[in-house]
Structures are given as C-alpha cells and as structure tokens.
Write a sequence for this structure.
C-alpha cells in the first residue's frame, strides 16, 4: 500500500498492510471510530486503493484516484440518506444489492460506503444486506462506518473485518498488570492461569481498561506479524504473535469487545469469566 500523502498513524498503516493480502483487501470492512472525519478519510483512502490504476496503490494521481477523492467515480458509491429521512431505506438496500452484481464501469472493483451505520442501518436493513455479505461478488468492497461495531448484528460482525481507529490510551499499573496476566494465561498450555487472571474483571470499573490493554497487545501482535514494531508492551505482543495466527488474533479482539458488553449486563461475573476462559481457549487451540 502507498501511504504517501495520507496522514495515518503507524499502527493503522501496519494493520492495513497486514489485511492487504495479495493486493486485495477483505471484501467487507467496518471502520469503527469516534472521529467521523478520520473514519471517512480512511474509507476514502480504501476506495482509492480499490479503483486505482497506478502501480503503487493508491497512487493519488491517476484519473480513478482523483475521481474517487472527489466522490465522482462511477464505481464508488457513498450511500446518501433519502430526503427527510434519518435512516437508509429498504429500497436503497435492494438497489444496492442489484447494483453490486453488475460489473464495474471503469475500475476492477466497485466500492459501497455506508456511514453512521449505528443509526442509519437498523436490524431490518442489516438482515436485508446479510445474504449479499455472505455470498458477495468478487469485484465488490463494502465499507461500513460506525462509532461502535457492537451496535451491529452479530451476524454482520461475523462476516466483516473490523478496523478500529482510536487514539493511544495510557493504562494505569493495575490495568497493565492484569492485562499481562491474561495474555500470559492465553499463551499458557494449561487453563488455570487464564481463569485466575480473568478474575481481575470482577472489578467492573476496571474491566474496560484491562480489556483495552489486552486488545492493544493483540493489535500490536498483528503489527509484529506484518513486520512492524509494537507500540505498547513488546514482550506481551511478541508472545501473542508467536502463539497465534492473524485470524485468531482478530477473533480475540472481537471477544474482548463482546465480553465488555456482557460484563456491563451480567450479574454473575464468575460464570462470565469462566465462559470467557473457554472462548479464549477455543480460539487458541482451534485449527
């Protein structure tokens, strides 16, 4: 990927490079960010990458890149809201589905960008969209923008790769220590160290920081697998990178998010941590 002229942090660049497999991104992406402008810039970059006709994509200078940047490329659709509506319509989704099966006009790919999906893409429309995301045409890239991926249906999340854009967070010593223990437990061959480490999540006030610290190390492990350097705890990230595949790391990042939501809702935190232990172990040992 050519990042010249694009202001992305190193972690984002490394993650995108890791996801770019053989010059082709996953067909379905979710960009999660509290900064709408930052998410839109990344979506625009990915659209340019998909339609670019230059040697180093996105080159930023070819006709396709220029048109994509100006939102005037015939193969890049930024779905607008219907007049006087706050959500996308069923008709729009049906039109999108029909259009997705038509070959691109000029480029090798067609890109569909849907923004503010937390509010604009209710469950009914997500279900309408589901079959298309299950069996997508080879030439299509879907990009959904939202502030919280967990607001979307689990069936949608299972078929999309989530890119999370967040500023670096400094964790206090207690959260960092608890996260290190969980990472040690994940990479251990026995179950007890992980189960014991997850007990730190019984402090619901601290659980968010602990899981965020675990996720940072998982993200750093992805960066290491793509040849980069960890931004946080390099030792923990290296252990994860040596033990886990890219797919397993991404699944664990999703597990951290879904677990935090459950922690906020569940009364019996001990049952929940037992479940989490089982899920981490299942992901670690699956073939």
């Amino acid at each position: 990927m050519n990042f010249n002229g694009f202001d992305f942090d190193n972690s984002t660049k490394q993650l995108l490079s890791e996801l770019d497999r053989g010059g082709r991104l996953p067909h379905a992406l979710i960009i999660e960010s509290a900064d709408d402008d930052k998410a839109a810039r990344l979506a625009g970059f990915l659209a340019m990458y998909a339609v670019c006709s230059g040697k180093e994509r996105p080159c930023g200078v070819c006709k396709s890149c220029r048109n994509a940047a100006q939102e005037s490329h015939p193969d890049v659709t930024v779905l607008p809201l219907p007049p006087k509506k706050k959500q996308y319509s069923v008709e729009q989704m049906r039109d999108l589905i029909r259009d997705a099966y038509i070959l691109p006009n000029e480029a090798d790919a067609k890109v569909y960008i849907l923004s503010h999906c937390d509010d604009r893409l209710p469950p009914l429309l997500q279900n309408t969209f589901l079959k298309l995301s299950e069996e997508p045409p080879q030439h299509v890239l879907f990009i959904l923008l939202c502030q919280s991926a967990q607001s979307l249906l689990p069936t949608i999340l299972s078929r999309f790769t989530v890119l999370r854009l967040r500023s670096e967070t400094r964790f206090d010593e207690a959260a960092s220590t608890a996260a290190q223990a969980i990472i040690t437990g994940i990479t251990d061959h026995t179950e007890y160290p992980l189960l014991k480490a997850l007990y730190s999540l019984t402090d619901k006030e601290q659980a968010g920081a602990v899981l965020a610290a675990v996720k940072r190390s998982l993200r750093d492990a992805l960066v290491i697998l793509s040849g980069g350097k960890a931004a946080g705890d390099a030792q923990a990230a290296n252990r994860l990178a040596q033990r886990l595949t890219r797919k397993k790391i991404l699944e664990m990042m999703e597990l951290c998010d879904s677990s935090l939501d459950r922690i906020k809702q569940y009364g019996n935190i001990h049952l929940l941590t037992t479940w989490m232990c089982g899920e981490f172990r299942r992901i670690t040992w699956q073939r």
